[in-house]
């Protein structure tokens, strides 16, 4: 088992740190955010991720998981260094690798012997080589001649199911040039070898590309069914049944064929933009990716149009929004469709009350600076009280179990916009709702 340092205690860093320590490795999680590290030290997670905290506490107690804000110490304490910092979109849509390059420089400045540096962040093709060049340059500046390897080990976990995905992934992708690097990474993931998880070995450029290709493909798939949903609405077909009929075909597969209000989150939007940007920079247009980006924006606008088509002028109308995060079992609000939809409803004069089981703290941090004022409720029933309409944006299990009679009773109006197709139209109409799904 290995000593591992992970830089970046975000969604990926924390889950990777907890799981690598659960595998038996000794892990130090390093972040520049002091409050994050303090919270982690006390056994609490700064992010909500289903099932995470018990494992966090268990591995701290076992002495396999520690935390630090000292990057230099992180470089010195392990031979295997994972980079899991954020790679947000730049204003032009490219991936911002500034934090990655900064860390590479720190590694080159402080390493005191062989290191295996592993990019876990999602990064543009060529970043591993760039990281190697920066480390080499820093070593050169101080006349040091330490050996090092660079590997790319993109992360495929899904927020909300991240623990399960890390403990039993569909594959582990390793881009590495040397046997030493491949062997060390295989060792860090040892329990997965026994679980027969496939390991795919490639060069670093290919691993980096495979991550973008995977996310962009899934984003295109979601966008395809979303566009089909709008066409189904117009043509009088049912997109859920279309998706069922399509998904049974193993060449297509049923995953990521659920129509909804548009894809969001911290990965699909920024990664498909980055892929499109890479294509533009290489003069190889990524036409499908570009089209999916545009169609996804249209999908979010279409949700607002659906609400207006039913309700007319929204000035002064009370709209209860159930669910704000981009998917259930996470508190992540980054690029959630709710940001566009709720923002538009507010701008059009609606009074929005909202409830989300775990997303409201992050939602407040995003809506308030944008000048979007929302009434945050302590439960779904409080949110719907006196509402002219309910808009369901995230399919939290809690909403699937709502007492719909009580919801109907508490509302002032009858409109129910179920933008995740959680409920059945007939049942909803039987309860007296004016029901509107997506493509059903
Ligand atoms: P995040 O924003 O949640 O966390 C990034 C963390 O890095 C922050 O806590 C930040 O303080 C820290 N950081 C920044 N600079 C640092 C430095 N120099 N040293 C140490 N820490 C530093 O990001 P995330 O969602 O965990 O994503 C990380 C990477 O993994 C991204 O490239 C993302 O695309 C990729 N990824 C994310 C997911 C996901 O579901 N969130 C899944 C797969 C891959």
Give the secondary structure arrangement, pairings included:
Blueprint: E1 3-7, H1 11-22, E2 26-30, H2 34-41, H3 52-61, E3 65-68, H4 71-77, E4 80-83, H5 98-110, E5 115-119, H6 127-141, E6 148-152, H7 162-167, E7 172-176, H8 179-188, H9 190-194, E8 199-202, H10 204-235, H11 239-247, H12 268-281, H13 287-311, E9 318-322, H14 337-347, E10 351-355, H15 360-367, E11 375-376, H16 380-384, E12 389-392, H17 397-400, H18 404-410, E13 415-418, H19 425-430, E14 434-436
Parallel strand pairs: 1-2, 1-4, 2-3, 4-5, 5-6, 7-8, 9-10, 9-12, 10-11, 12-13, 13-14
Antiparallel strand pairs: 6-7
Helix pairs in contact: 1-3, 4-5, 5-6, 10-12, 10-13, 12-13, 13-14
The protein binds nicotinamide-adenine-dinucleotide (NAD).
- Classification by helices and strands: alpha/beta
Rg is 23 Å
Can you give the mean pLDDT? 97
Give the biggest sheet: 8 strands, mixed
Residue stretches low in confidence (pLDDT < 50, at least 5 long) are none
Enter the CATH topology name of the largest domain: Rossmann fold
How many domains comprise the coordinates? 2
CATH class of the largest domain: Alpha Beta
Number of distinct helices: 19
Bound ligands, each once? nicotinamide-adenine-dinucleotide
Q: What is the end-to-end distance?
A: 52 Å
Proportion of helical residues: 40-55%
Question: What is the fourth-level CATH superfamily of the largest domain?
Answer: NAD(P)-binding Rossmann-like Domain
Tell me what portion of residues adopts beta-strand conformation.
Answer: 5-15%
Shape: elongated
**Can you tell me the CATH architecture of the largest domain?**
3-Layer(aba) Sandwich
Total strands: 14
């Amino acid at each position: 088992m290995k000593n591992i340092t992970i830089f970046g205690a975000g969604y990926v860093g924390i889950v990777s740190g907890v799981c690598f320590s659960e595998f038996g490795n000794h892990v130090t999680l390093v972040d520049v955010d002091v409050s994050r590290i303090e919270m982690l030290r006390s056994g609490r997670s700064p992010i909500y991720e289903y099932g995470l905290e018990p494992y966090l506490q268990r591995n701290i107690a076992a002495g396999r998981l520690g935390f630090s804000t000292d990057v230099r110490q992180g470089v010195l304490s392990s031979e295997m260094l994972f980079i899991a910092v954020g790679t947000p979109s730049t204003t032009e849509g490219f991936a911002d690798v500034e934090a990655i390059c900064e860390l590479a420089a720190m590694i080159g400045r402080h390493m005191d012997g062989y290191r295996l540096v592993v990019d876990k962040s999602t990064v543009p093709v060529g970043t591993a080589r760039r990281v190697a060049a920066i480390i080499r340059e820093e070593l050169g500046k101080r006349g040091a001649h330490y050996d090092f390897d660079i590997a790319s080990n993109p992360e495929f976990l899904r927020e909300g199911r991240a623990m399960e995905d890390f403990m039993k992934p569909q594959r582990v992708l390793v881009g590495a040039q040397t046997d030493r690097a491949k062997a060390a990474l295989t060792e860090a993931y040892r329990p997965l070898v026994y679980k027969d998880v496939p390991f795919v070995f490639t060069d670093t450029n290919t691993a980096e590309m495979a991550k973008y290709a995977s996310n962009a493909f899934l984003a295109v798939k979601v966008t395809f069914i979303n566009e089909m949903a709008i066409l189904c609405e117009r043509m009088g077909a049912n997109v859920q049944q279309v998706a069922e009929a399509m998904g049974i075909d193993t060449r297509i597969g049923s995953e990521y064929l659920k129509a909804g209000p548009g894809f969001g989150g911290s990965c699909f939007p920024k990664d498909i933009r980055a892929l499109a940007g890479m294509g533009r920079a290489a003069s190889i247009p990524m036409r499908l990716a570009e089209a999916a980006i545009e169609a996804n924006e249209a999908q979010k606008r279409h949700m607002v149009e659906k609400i207006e088509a039913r309700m007319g002028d929204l000035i002064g109308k009370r709209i209860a929004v159930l669910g704000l995060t981009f998917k259930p079992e996470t508190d992540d609000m980054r690029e959630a469709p709710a940001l566009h939809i709720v923002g538009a409803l507010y701008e059009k004069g609606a009074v929005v009350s909202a409830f989300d089981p775990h997303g409201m703290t992050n939602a407040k941090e995003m809506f308030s600076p944008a000048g979007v004022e929302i009434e945050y409720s302590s439960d779904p029933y409080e949110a719907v009280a006196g509402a002219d309409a309910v808009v369901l944006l995230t399919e939290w299990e809690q909403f699937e179990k709502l007492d719909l009679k009580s919801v109907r009773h508490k509302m002032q109006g009858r409109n129910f916009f179920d933008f995740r197709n959680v409920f059945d139209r007939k049942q909803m109409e039987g309860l007296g709702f004016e029901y509107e799904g997506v493509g059903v």
